[in-house]
Design a protein that fits this description.
- With about 350 residues, this protein is of the alpha/beta class.
- It is built from 11 helices and 15 strands.
- The chain folds into 2 domains: about 170 residues, Response regulator (Rossmann fold); about 150 residues, Rossmann fold (3-Layer(aba) Sandwich).
- Strands 8, 9, 10, 11, 12, 13 and 15 form a 7-stranded mixed beta sheet that branches.
- Helix 2 runs parallel beside helix 10, helix 6 runs parallel beside helix 7 and helix 6 packs antiparallel against helix 11.
- The longest helix is centred in the middle third of the chain and has 20 residues.
C-alpha cells in the first residue's frame, strides 16, 4: 500500500512538472493520432520511457530516447519520458506511468529488471518493453506482459573490434564500460575476439586491455580519468558502452591528440552514428533501436502481444556501421567493409 501511495504521489508530481523530459507531449504529436481499438472507439496509444541516463548525454540516453520518439512519431503514438532516475525510484516511476494509463512502459537496460518484474505483476494490462534485458526475464513475468529487445551485443563488439584491429598502430586497444551488464560484457567479449582475430590476419598481435567500469553511466569525469590511464598503457583505439563516460573519454582523447599535433588515438562510438561529434571518432556501431520498439508497439496495436524476446542483427538490418572518417585510409576502409559483409552473411571467423 505504501508503495502504491508513493507511486500515486509521484504520478501527480510528474504531471505537474511535465515529467523530467517533456511531460504530456501531445503538442509534439499534433492531434494525438488515434487508432481504432476494434471495439468501435478511437484509442490514443501512449508509451513512456524511464531511464537512469540523461537524454542529453549524447550517447545511450539520447539514442534510446530518440528510438522511442522515432517509433512513436512513425506510428502516431504519444510519448513521455522520465530521465536521470535513481535506482531507488525505478518502481515508483514505472508505477506512476501505469497509473496514468500508459500502454507501454519502456526501459533501456538490464538494470531495471527487478523493478519491471515487480510492477508488471501489479499491472497486468500494461506492456513493459525492456531494451537489452535478460533472455529469462519474460518467462519470469507472471502476467506475460514483458518483452525484451536485444541488439546482438556480441555482434556489436565484433564490428567495433574489426576496425580497432585494423587501425591500431600500437597494437593495444581499450574498452570502457559503465556497469557490468550482460550486454556490456557481450560487447567487450566480441570486441576482444574480433580485434585479436583481425590483428592476426594483418600480421599483428593485438592486446585488448581488461575492461574498466565506472559504475555510473553519467560519470563523465571517470571517462576522462580512464582514457588518460589507458592511453598511458599504450591504447590507441577505444570502444565503450558507458553513456556520458564515453563522452568524457573522447574529451580526453581529443585533448591528447591536440597536444600531439595530430590525431593518433581513435574512438569507435555507439549506438548511433556520432561521426563529427568528436574529432577522434572514426566510425560508429549503429543500432536501429526504433525498429525494435516499433515491433512491440505494433503487437500492442494488433492485439498480438505475447511477451518474449526480439533480436536485432546486421543480417536483419537492425545493426549497421555508420559513416567512416577520412582518418581511416581507403585500404583499411575496404578491408573493414569486406569484414562487415562476412558478419552479415554469418561467415565471419568461420
Amino acid at each position: 500500500m505504501r508503495k502504491r501511495i508513493a507511486a500515486l504521489a509521484l504520478a501527480l508530481a510528474m504531471v505537474l512538472s511535465l515529467a523530467a523530459c517533456g511531460g504530456d507531449n501531445s503538442s509534439k504529436q499534433p492531434g494525438g493520432d488515434k487508432k481504432d481499438d476494434g471495439q468501435g472507439s478511437d484509442k490514443v496509444y501512449r508509451i513512456a520511457m524511464v531511464t537512469d541516463s540523461s537524454i542529453t548525454d549524447g550517447s545511450w540516453g539520447t539514442v534510446t530516447y530518440n528510438a522511442m520518439v522515432d517509433a512513436a512519431t512513425e506510428r502516431g503514438w504519444q510519448y513521455e519520458c522520465a530521465d536521470a532516475i535513481a535506482q531507488s525510484a525505478y518502481y515508483d516511476t514505472f508505477a506512476s506511468y501505469c497509473d496514468q494509463g500508459f500502454d507501454i512502459v519502456y526501459a533501456p537496460g538490464n538494470q531495471y529488471t527487478d523493478a519491471i518484474l515487480e510492477v508488471a505483476k501489479e499491472y497486468p494490462d500494461v506492456v513493459f518493453a525492456q531494451l537489452n534485458g535478460s533472455m529469462g526475464t519474460p518467462e519470469k513475468a507472471e502476467n506475460g506482459n514483458v518483452m525484451v529487445m536485444f541488439p546482438d551485443s556480441h555482434e556489436i563488439g565484433w564490428t567495433a573490434g574489426i576496425l580497432a584491429g585494423l587501425m591500431t598502430q600500437t597494437n593495444t586497444v581499450a574498452f570502457i564500460g559503465a556497469i557490468e551488464l550482460d550486454t556490456t560484457q557481450g560487447k567487450y567479449a566480441g570486441f576482444k575476439e574480433s580485434a585479436e582475430y583481425v590483428g592476426k590476419q594483418e600480421g599483428k598481435s593485438v592486446t585488448v586491455l581488461d575492461p574498466v567500469y565506472s559504475g555510473d553511466f553519467n560519470a563523465s569525469d571517470k571517462g576522462i580519468e580512464f582514457a588518460k590511464a589507458l592511453m598511458d598503457q599504450g591504447a590507441d583505439v577505444f570502444f565503450g558502452d558507458a553513456g556520458a563516460v564515453d563522452s568524457g573519454a573522447r574529451q580526453a582523447i581529443d585533448e591528447h591528440n591536440t597536444a600531439a599535433g595530430k590525431v593518433e588515438v581513435y574512438d569507435i562510438a555507439q549506438p548511433a552514428d556520432l561521426l563529427g561529434q568528436n574529432e577522434c571518432i572514426i566510425c560508429s556501431q549503429v543500432t536501429d533501436n526504433s525498429s525494435l520498439v516499433s515491433m512491440c508497439m505494433e503487437s500492442v496495436e494488433n492485439g498480438t502481444f505475447e511477451g518474449g524476446a526480439v533480436y536485432g542483427t546486421m543480417g536483419n538490418g537492425v545493426l549497421s556501421a555508420g559513416k567512416i572518417s577520412d582518418l581511416v585510409p581507403k585500404e583499411i576502409q575496404d578491408k573493414y567493409n569486406a569484414y562487415l559483409e562476412q558478419v552479415k552473411a554469418g561467415t565471419f571467423m568461420k
